[in-house]
Design brief:
Blueprint lengths: L15 H23 L15 H4 L2 E6 L2 E6 L1 H6 L3 E10 L5 E8 L16 E11 L4 E10 L9 E9 L5
Parallel strand pairs: 5-7
Antiparallel strand pairs: 1-2, 3-4, 3-6, 4-5, 6-7
């Protein structure tokens, strides 16, 4: 007869400790996403003066209508369509060149994959008036803001004729 050496009738079922660990990880993920959207995580750039904030850009609802997903933008976002705005963020280039006339501006740096805001509201396509040098640093751009209402799942916003703005030092 073999000794049981502490085995239980549970067999190979996961213990409650694993469920607790997964619960903590889920809560931590929600907290990090909330901090990123609010600009209080130490990575996401805060709003610079009258600059557009990432929290404002996140105010979009996704509704299913007529078999497709429609995006409903907050009144604040809709009112900015066609206006000149400033946005602070991090460059995500489309290519490996030294300069970029077209790139994404993201709420989080490209080196922080765990910090990225999931979804199109966490990035804005930038079409520059003249190419920007590649950088991992936070930048501020100014240009004409567009809300892309074509139902695209990959981009909601674009800034055209963008120029780099010197950050205010306080």
């Amino acid at each position: 007869m073999r000794a049981s050496h502490g085995s239980s009738r549970r067999g190979n079922r996961p213990s409650s400790a694993w469920f607790a660990l997964f619960g903590v990880a889920a809560v931590l993920g929600v907290v990090i996403a909330t901090l990123v959207l609010s600009g209080q995580d130490g990575v996401t750039p805060p709003s610079t003066g009258d600059a557009l904030s990432w929290a404002t850009l996140a105010r979009v609802k996704h509704l299913r209508a007529s078999g497709r997903i429609e995006h409903r933008f907050d009144k604040t976002i809709a009112s900015l369509d066609g206006t000149i705005v400033q946005l602070s963020g991090f460059m995500i280039p489309y290519d490996l060149e030294a300069t970029h006339a077209r790139f994404l501006l993201a709420a989080s740096p490209r080196t922080c994959f765990g910090c990225w805001i999931p979804g199109p509201e966490g990035r804005v396509e930038i079409i520059a008036a003249s190419p920007f040098g590649d950088t991992y640093d936070r930048i501020v751009v100014s240009g004409r803001f567009s809300v892309l209402r074509d139902g695209s799942e990959s981009l909601y916003y674009r800034i055209t004729d963008a120029v780099r703005v010197a950050e205010k030092r306080g």
